Amino acid sequence: MNNNIDNQGETMFEAPESEYLVPFDGSFRVSKASTTALTDRHPHKGKHRKEATDALKQLQRVLAAGDRHAVLLVFQAMDAAGKDSTIRAVMQGVDPSGCQVFSFKKPSSQELDHDFLWRTTRCLPERGRIGIFNRSHYEEVLVVRVHPQLLASQKIPSELNLETIWDERLRSIREHEEHLARNGTVIIKFWLNVSREEQKRRFLARLDDPSKNWKFEPRDVIERQHWDSYMHAYEEALNATSRPWAPWYAIPADNKRYMQARVAETIINALESIGLRYPEPSEEDRVAFAAARQDLENDH
Q: What range defines the domain where residue 177 resides?
């Protein structure tokens, strides 16, 4: 299941199978998505972490050398789910020059003067590079959906219709991602699914540990009051935009080590599925290489 052929005959990346893959038929339900591991069989300790790090490091080198695909990793989650630590743990062996991370929080005045996809579009990775969005364009159908008053600052020219705007934005995202996939971007999206109970425990740990106080935001506790609204927004967004060429994975996040291992495994499976390889030198290159070799060997 390595490639998808659309109705125009173009080849696109297709999602690796996983028990955490959000189906493409709109049947995903947050209430049935586990926040804990579905199985204990998956190795996520010691040598297995090192093997995953080494595998991803090698795949990134071939990705950069081939210069034909870009990779976009999208991370969305409730606060304290572990987005930052997962990005650090999974990408620790990757060449920093081949990777870029962007975090998207409150939009700037410049960003509000453009359409809602502009600020993330200008940060997309080039071919041969891995781009990571720590939060993303999905904020516009998550936090803005939960707090629709934020739309007032977005200078939308037509009269707002809250009955249709979310479906319209989700359609725009879906079409945007299909365009990227058709042009060689491998898109993998992760919803790190933490339970409300575990989030509470992590918030209290941040308050109890002086070295973690800086991570705590009182506003995050206020947002917990909107938990059900956020879960509804996530369910709608994942169902509308999980597609074979831009899949969502709902990864259990109550155990960080397990979560990080499954994220790494999914990325590795995706990169292995697209047939990455080092470029073959042309006949002209081979002639030039032979001449260069002779010059070097004759250089005394």
A: 3-298
